[in-house]
Amino acid sequence: MYVDNKEIARIFQIPVSTVDLLRRKGKLPYFMVGKHHRYDPKEVEKALLKRAQQGFLWLA
């Protein structure tokens, strides 16, 4: 199941603006469907856990 920015923000309880910032900086995996960004929650979770292990929280 793939979700949009608002849903990924809700799942991980982070602001949509943080999702957008992390995506723009290449820190979150995503793909495009037309002009819309879509995320695989499992892949996003892996990316966020990796960032946490490196000492980062949600911030870009």
- The H/E string reads HHEEH
What oligomeric arrangement do these chains adopt?
Answer: single chain
Rounded mean pLDDT is 92
> What does the main sheet amount to?
2 strands, antiparallel
Strand content: 5-15%
Give the tally of β-strands.
Answer: 2
Percent in helix: 40-55%
Rounded to an integer, what's the Rg over CA atoms? 11 Å
Strand order, main sheet: write it out: 1-2
Runs with pLDDT <50, length 5+? none
Number of helices: 3
User: What is the overall silhouette?
Assistant: globular
What is the CA-CA span between the terminal residues?
Answer: 25 Å
How would you classify the helix and strand content by structural class? mainly alpha
Query: What is the total domain count?
Result: 1
Primary descriptors:
50% helix; single chain; 60 residues; two-stranded antiparallel ribbon
What do these coordinates show?
The chain has 60 residues and is mainly alpha-helical. It has one domain (5-53). The chain has helices at residues 5-12, 16-24, 41-53; strands spanning 31-33, 36-38. Strands 1-2 form a two-stranded antiparallel ribbon. A hairpin with a 2-residue loop joins strand 1 (31-33) and strand 2. Helix 1 crosses helix 2. The protein is globular and about 35 Å long.
Which SSEs are present, and which pair or pack?
Blueprint: H1 5-12, H2 16-24, E1 31-33, E2 36-38, H3 41-53
Antiparallel strand pairs: 1-2
Quick summary:
This protein is mainly alpha-helical. It has helices spanning 5-12, 16-24, 41-53, and strands at residues 31-33, 36-38. The chain has one domain (5-53).
